[in-house]
Amino acid sequence: MEKTERRFSHFQAYRSKKRRNEVLFAWGLILPSLAILVLVIFYPLVQSLLLSFSNANMLNIEGALFVGLDNFKKIIQDSVFWVALKNTVIFVGCSVAGGLIIGMALALILNENIPFRNFFRGIALIPWVVPGVVVALLVLYMFNSQAGIVNWVLVQLGLADQFIDWFGSTEYALWAEIIANIWNQTPFYMLMILAGLQTVPRHQHEAAMIDGASSIQRFFYVTLPNIRGVLMIVTSLMVIWNFNNFDLIWTTTQGGPVNATMTLSVYVYRNAFVGLDVGYAAAIGMVWLAILLSFSSFYIRALKGADHQ
């Protein structure tokens, strides 16, 4: 009996030691990642929050004074901020909707067994792999008011009487940015949706065809329900991505003309590094963060609700 108890005691000690080693090993793997998160994300976030309540500027950050909610009160009265917010919502909404629709169409086409399918899949990814600054420079040439290919095509098709000064017009500048952004990001939608289409059970399509369902009916009642999760995740990621889009707009127009393409990302940059008003830029950044967090929270709840249906 005593021998059995000793064996059991040794076994318990061995299990306890093994579990302790596993826990230590797990923490050893997690701690470097946590340290990076703290240094790269949480520390700058806390610093930005503190700066948003100060009158800090690039010339005298150390001598910044606490000003309470003054920066946030200034935001409410700042007409340019509301223009930037409106432009951001239009830019994000149109970019995501356009990219999703075109990306879905391309994914459905390239999911079929067509000749040279893999070749076309590779070609379609080219706009996505091009760096943002290069895309912006290409866009400047394509929408050039003197010799741009876009203007030439519009004139040849009879859709315009003369060349349009896209980036010099308050009416067309934002739409030129949206068109360029859709062209750049559509391959990402196509790739993600195409991956989702590979998971749609083939037997569901076959059953629907036997029941006499048309291709449109199969799309709405078989394909869409199966890729709903992919669509929601991709849309959420792209909304956040486009809210943070900076390089395209800054390289082409820097928010002009007359704030026609001013977005929150550009406005924060201009206040912080052109106007040198770091405190006010941080306050705008906090409002921007609150908007994204609210959207993410709503979207996560919507995604969970969709999964329970």
UniProtKB/TrEMBL annotation:
**CDD domains reported for this sequence:** TM_PBP2 (cd06261)
Name listed for the protein in its UniProt record: ABC transmembrane type-1 domain-containing protein
The record's comment on protein family reads:
Belongs to the binding-protein-dependent transport system permease family.
Keywords for the protein's UniProt record, in alphabetical order: Cell membrane, Membrane, Transmembrane, Transmembrane helix, Transport
Gene Ontology BP annotations:
transmembrane transport
Membrane association type: Multi-pass membrane protein
State the compartments where it is located: Cell membrane
Tell me which GO cellular component terms the UniProt record holds. plasma membrane
Q: Which Gene3D superfamilies does the entry mention?
A: MetI-like
Q: Where is the signal peptide?
A: none
Q: Does the keyword Methyltransferase apply?
A: no
- A Pfam family of the record is BPD_transp_1
